[in-house]
Structure formats: structure tokens, C-alpha cells
Amino acid sequence: MSNSNLFLSIGKPIKNEYGRVIGKVASFALTPNGKFDAVYVEFGDGQFTKQPMESIKFNGAEITFLSKIKSQAGLLSDHIPLIWRKDDALKDLVANKKITNEVYQDLHNSFSNVLTQLKKEAQVVIDESIIEIERCNEEITSLSYAVANLEIEHEIGKVDEENYRQAFALLQETLRRAQAEKNDFEVTKSKLSSVLLGDQTQVPAKSVATKVYAETVTNAATKLPEPPVVVYVKEMGKSGI
């Protein structure tokens, strides 16, 4: 969407990367020269925040809120190994007497300080991913119970077939999204943890997440809880064995 049309998105819903509506566009912040600088977002819980333009993707009528955790993890996964490689190159240079010990020590200390800060930021993202994974687990559990209760009410005839099918489809789709979101956070956490351990052979998070999401969509129905079996026991007398 061109900048001139961005104002048309005010009041429009914003979805996350999994299709869940999380809020709406309230307004924009512009620089003195007219450049769009930030988006004011009203989230579903009533919270009103200012988000950088980079965190919102405008694609025609579709407005998507990009995960801050995933974007930060991507940057850190690139920057941390880069600093390691630079520091290793520095060691080779001083060993081959291409730089002095004084220059080496100064640059090495600089790289070490940067690396320490990046590791702290990576740990914060890992902790945030763990929180999000737990949130997804709680949502998946609640949805599973919702499906089970729907099956019970349908089985005993309190929910007709049409309403049952509509409700089941809605719960199934929501469960798929929750599982895909959880898988993405697990991939993010695993990738960053591997980077901190010095493992740079990890498969890129984006490709893994895409594969996991496809498998989740294909197999989500099989992960839904089985309809409960209700057993009716006839009460018998003491000698009725």
C-alpha cells in the first residue's frame, strides 16, 4: 500500500501472522517531512501502543502485525555468529603478526562487550519465547476441552448437526493456529539456544517453521481429542452380580 493510502487503513483490523485479529489501526505518527514513522495500535484488550512501521505489514486490505520476538531472534541469530567470526579472524591476524597486540586487545575487548550484550538480549528473547509457548499450551488445552464438551453435548442431542459442524470447524481452525504459533516459538527458542551454544549448523528458523506449520495444518484434525465414551451402568441389588 502506498504511503498516500495508509490513512485508509485507520480503523481496519490487524491480524497476527496466524490470522488471529489482535486489534486495529488507530492512527499514524509522521515526521516533519511527512514520512510515516510509527503506527498507533489499539489491541483487543484495550491497550493503546505506538509500534514502529517495521512491525506492521500493509498488503492492500490485509494488515499484519509481525512478531517482535521472531524478528529479534532473526537479527540475533545473524549478529552473534558474525561477532564470533570477526573475533576468530582477529586472532588469526595477530597470530600472523598482521596487527599488533595492542590493536588486537582493543578490538577483542570491543567484540567481547558487544557479544556479552547480544547474549543478554538473546536470553531475554528465549525467556519471552518460553512464556509464549506456555500461553499456547494453555490455549491448546482449553480448546481441547472445548472440543470434548462439544462432542459430549452433540452426542446426547443437545447440539444439532448444523451448529455442531460450525462450532467444530471454528474450534479446529483456532487449534491449528495455536499449534502453528507454538511451533514457531519453539523453533525460535531452539535456534537461539543453539546459537548461544555455538552451534551454527541449525536449519534457518523460517524454513523449519514453514514445514512445521504445513504439517500442523495437515495433521491438526488427528490431534483433536477423541469423542468421550459415556458408559451407563445399571444399578443392581446387592445380590445382582
Provide a quick synopsis of the model.
By secondary structure, the chain is α+β, with helices and mostly antiparallel strands. The chain contains four helices and six strands; from the N terminus they run ββββββαααα. The chain has a four-stranded antiparallel β-sheet with strand order 1-2-3-4, with no helix packed on it.
Strand-helix topology:
Blueprint: E1 13-15, E2 21-30, E3 36-43, E4 48-52, E5 56-59, E6 62-65, H1 68-95, H2 101-155, H3 161-196, H4 205-223
Antiparallel strand pairs: 1-2, 2-3, 3-4, 5-6
Helix pairs in contact: 1-2, 1-3, 2-3, 3-4
Structure characterization notes:
The protein is of the alpha+beta class. The chain folds into 2 domains: 3-66, Roll (SH3 type barrels), CATH 2.30.30; 69-223, no CATH class. 57% of the residues lie in helices and 14% in strands. The chain contains 4 helices and 6 strands. The chain has helices spanning 68-95, 101-155, 161-196, 205-223; strands at residues 13-15, 21-30, 36-43, 48-52, 56-59, 62-65. The strands form 2 sheets. It has a 4-stranded antiparallel β-sheet with strand order 1-2-3-4, with no helix packed on it. The chain has a two-stranded antiparallel sheet with strand order 5-6. Helix 1 runs antiparallel to helix 2 (101-155), helix 1 (68-95) packs parallel to helix 3 and helix 3 runs antiparallel to helix 4 (205-223). The N and C termini lie far apart (76 Å). The model is unreliable at 200-241 (pLDDT under 50).
